[in-house]
Amino acid sequence: MDIRVLKPADIPHVQSTNITNLPENYFMKYYLYHALSWPQLSYVAVDVSRPKKTPYDPPKIVGYVLAKMEEEPVNGIQHGHITSLSVMRTHRRLGLAEKLMRQSQRAMVEMFGAQYVSLHVRMSNIAALRLYRDTLGFEVEKVESKYYADGEDAYSMKMNLNPLREQLEADEDYADEGEEVGDVGKKEKKKEDGEQGKTKRKVKLGRGLGVGELVERNESSKA
Length: 223
Ligand code: ACO
Description:
- The structure is a single chain.
- By secondary structure, this protein is of the alpha+beta class.
- The chain has 2 domains: 168 residues, Aminopeptidase (3-Layer(aba) Sandwich); 36 residues, no CATH class.
- Strands 1-2-3-4-5-7-6 form a 7-stranded mixed sheet, sandwiched between helices.
- The chain binds acetyl coenzyme *A.
- Acetyl coenzyme *A (ACO) binds next to strand 4, helix 3, strand 5 and helix 4.
- Acetyl coenzyme *A binds next to strand 4, helix 3, strand 5 and helix 4.
- Belongs to the acetyltransferase family. ARD1 subfamily.
- This is N-acetyltransferase domain-containing protein.
């Protein structure tokens, strides 16, 4: 099973998964709006166990999470929102929904500095409630009366993402990129042997790495 970011080409397959699993369905442009506005937040679970018969076989999408950031947050507090989540019956209870949710929540924190994530769920949806409340740690904020088109009430739920941010920062601080090799490795090793045992060293990861300062060139002075 492959869990990866949703691509615009996946949208028809995600839409068909959504129609199979949920009564809340959306126009194609609403999926596109998510994929283009917040391309890091929506994920799909793809069954890669069966080889493609032709190069044109579509990916077998068995689950998805469609997520976004709140565009006009109250009090300016950045937060994400889960628009829709579902997994095909054939692939349930394998931990896919949990993984899809955790990937999206992580991206909300890393990319957009989200402080919490919200969602709505039917009060009768025991499976989803167990997932959100017991597995992931969401809390019920309030009941929204007649939220759904058929008149059912919804729980409006929220999860604080600050503990996740702290955990990610701690992981980043103590990440170890492995032993250095070649001459550099030898020098380090000698130094360490001379001192008392191994030393810990902070290294930059992810967005802290690689991209140098961008300098804008003044083209007008050339003419
Ligand atoms: N009964 C009780 N608890 C459940 C159930 C269930 N049927 N399904 C999941 N859980 C809980 C369990 O605690 C489970 O952990 P465990 O298997 O170790 O006991 C935990 O959630 C994680 O389960 P996953 O395997 O990650 O969940 P799955 O991939 O099966 O997907 C989902 C769960 C998305 C709710 C699935 O049942 C589904 O697609 N249902 C139909 C669509 C739906 O209701 N979507 C949510 C609507 S709300 C919204 O979209 C914002």
